[in-house]
Amino acid sequence: MQNTRREFLRLAGMPVAAAATMAGGVSIFSGAAQAQESADGLGALTEHTLPPLPYDYNALEPYIDEQTMRIHHDKHHAAYVKGLNTAEAALAKARAGGDYAQIEYWSKKCAFNGGGHYLHSMFWAAMGPAGKGGGGQPTGKLADLITRDFGGFDAFKAQFSAAATGVEGSGWGLLHYRPEDGRLIILQAENQHKLSPWGSIPVLGIDVWEHAYYLKYQNNRAEYVSQWWNVVNWEQVAKNVAMHQGA
Ligand code: MN3
Question: Residue 171's beta-bridge partner residues?
Answer without folding.
Answer: 190
